[in-house]
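**User:** My hope is that you can spare some time for a protein that puzzles me. As I understand it, each token names a local backbone shape. I would be glad if you read both lines and explained how they fit together. The protein I mean follows directly.
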Amino acid sequence: MDSMAGDSPEPSSSFSGGGEKKRVYVAMGAGESKAMVLWALQKFPDRDAAAFVLLHVYCHPKFIPIMGTRIPASQVQEQQLIAHKKMELQKMSDILDEHLLLCAQEKVQAEKLVVESDDVAEGLLQLISERHVTALVMGAAADKHYTKKMMALKSKKAQAVEQQADPFCRIWYICKGTLV
């Protein structure tokens, strides 16, 4: 489901020419992010026209895993919250670094960006607005159980972004490496 009705799902034609590189934001969590990066690398073939921004929205957790159990974040000491956040951000940074390497191997200019928000959808919507994002690739399913044959957005995050994103932002929703 491409967010601009009537447009071709193929992004390459709208990203060629014009001199300045267009920024393609690829929003990812810890899950199937590699499939999204690989999809974007295939669908934006003009290396001179597009640069990628590998994006992660970090949300403060409601629960913290401690010694095999999940404890509400409100009941955890500040030091433990800071340590957990540092560990989670390092894990995500490592994943983003792996994807930067993929982009470099394909000779695609890329950078990573981590933003913080209380809600992923709100973080994405704010980023779209503040940075005038015109191209966003993001996941369409909430978990791994959805299939490539999925025809509608299943993720509440994707649904919220679809409904509320500024109309100048074209969004491609990906599930398991396939355009929804």
Q: What stands out?
A: The first helix runs from residue 33 to 43. Residues 1-8 have pLDDT under 50 and may be disordered. The chain is about 35% helix and 25% strand.
